[in-house]
Specification:
Number of domains: 1
Structural class: mainly alpha
Order of helices and strands: HHHHHHHHHHHH
Number of helices: 12
Strand content: under 5%
Length: about 290
């Protein structure tokens, strides 16, 4: 085995470890959101989530400036930055709203279905062709969504649809990243993204403010910290391996969420959930595999 191949394998191993740890922190963030849902509002939680990340990005940019590392904050695509920020705000707001009313594992699994919507929106907006194998993967994933939603069940909870709306918004946000990455650097994208989302959530927070006690404030800050760690780990993982390797690892979060559901609320997901989650994961993984990098 030559040195180049060994290095590539080591990079993939690092990426896998970082990806799994990232999914764990995402699950922790979702758990904290659900735990604090009765003491906070969705707009407040989103505000703290993005504020901590904005603070982190500012620190990184200051560090780069002090070390004379080149970066630019200029952009010619401000409208696209705004559209991406709006879709991300909607994604977080609707997911956090869903977490207030539905089991953690259900909301997490449905929010992960954004991979199924990306090829559809890519075809609608950019005319990107999708292979027959990709369509089969998408259909498989959507069958899984139906199994988890159980729309014809007498116990159907309509609030679970908010998690699905979140997934649609995440897909639109990812398309925004894809287009912006063609023109702007990663930290340029983040520099515009976090202040815009902080402004949007801040405006919404004015109309739903609840003065938090120390415990609630600490939890809100932890949501921001765990969310920021998740994003940083994903960025690091993608520096070692392509998206088609990293993205499937995030579905470990469904398992972590199922464990948290059991530990905190004694809720054990049923057969429909695991069958649906399996189809969603399979559909998403194969959708990524058959897509073009």
């Amino acid at each position: 085995m030559n040195e180049t191949k060994v290095t590539k394998i080591n990079y993939i191993k690092r990426a896998v470890i970082l990806g799994i740890i990232a999914s764990f922190f995402y699950s922790i963030m979702s758990l904290l959101v659900k735990l604090v849902s009765n003491e906070s509002t969705e707009s407040m939680t989103v505000f703290f989530r993005f504020s901590v990340s904005m603070f982190w990005v500012i620190l990184v940019l200051i560090y780069k400036k002090l070390r004379n590392k080149p970066f630019t904050l200029k952009t010619k695509h401000l409208r696209l930055h705004v559209l991406r920020a709006v879709s991300a705000f909607v994604a977080m707001f609707t997911l956090y709203y869903a977490l207030r009313y539905v089991p953690l594992a259900d909301a997490s699994s449905l929010s992960m279905t954004y991979t199924l919507f990306i090829p559809i929106f890519s075809f609608i907006f950019f005319g990107t062709k999708t292979s027959a194998k990709s369509w089969l993967a998408l259909i498989t994933g959507f069958i899984g969504i139906v199994l988890i939603l159980k729309p014809f069940n007498s116990n159907f909870n309509p609030m679970i649809l908010m998690a699905l709306i979140s997934s649609v918004a995440i897909a639109l946000s990812f398309l925004g990243i894809y287009e912006l990455a063609k023109h702007d650097e990663p930290y340029t994208i983040m520099f515009y993204f976090f202040p815009l989302t902080v402004i949007l959530s801040g405006i919404a927070m004015i109309f739903s403010w609840k003065t938090p006690d120390l415990s609630t404030l600490t939890t809100l800050l932890m949501i921001g910290i765990t969310g920021t760690i998740y994003q940083d780990l994903i960025m690091r993982a993608m520096s070692y391996a392509p998206t088609k390797i990293i993205a499937p690892l995030l579905y470990f979060g469904i398992i972590f969420s199922g464990v948290f559901d059991w530990l905190f609320w004694h809720h054990i997901p049923g057969l429909y959930f695991w069958a649906g989650a399996s189809l969603i994961i399979g559909g998403c993984v194969f959708s990524i595999r058959y897509s073009k990098d």
